Amino acid sequence: MRSSTVLSCYHFFSHRSTHLPSTGHDVTRRVLRLLIAQLLLILACVLPQAAHAEGVEIRRAAVEAGEQGYRLNARYGFELSNDMEDTLQHGVSLYFTTEVEFTRPRWYWFDEKAIVARQTIVLGYNVLTRKYSVNIAGSLTQNYSSSLDEALLSIRNPNRWVVAPRGALKVGENYNVKLSMGLDANYISKPLKISALNNSEWRLTSDKKIFQYRAE
User: Angle 34-40-46 (CA atoms, 0-180°, nearest 5)?
Assistant: First the structure.
């Protein structure tokens, strides 16, 4: 891909070079300008493009009622950017927050906000042991992985978690469920946040997915 691009740039420049003016007092100036322009274009053709995070895709979203309460069953698809992987390799943890909201439509007033729940999963890397860790923020339980792909798999396919106890929803009523997931900028350290906020490689979040759930 890159070789063909460079070759195309070379042919373009060769074609332009054959049409340089050969007379006039400003020939030297024009040649210098053209050479500088060609050099800049060559650099644009040859230098690799930065890898960007593609965002988070919500591949599954469902609510399940059980004895312990209402659980969120979700699956996500995403990849880390090069900057994120490099930061992780230096021992800086990454935080992924899932937010789910239940609202009940009311024709006579504003919608009732019945449930708002958040869960943050921490992805870490131990430089000494060269192992990755995944745990829920605030929990003492940690899962260790020897590879990044294995660690990311547990974030893409998290355990079903209880977003609300039984009784939080009115049985038989329909609720609009709004779900989002992504890298949480609130946990990024201040020195890194300054550059991360203006860097597309650090924008890793999903669009809000809205679906209906009839409370059981």
Answer: 130
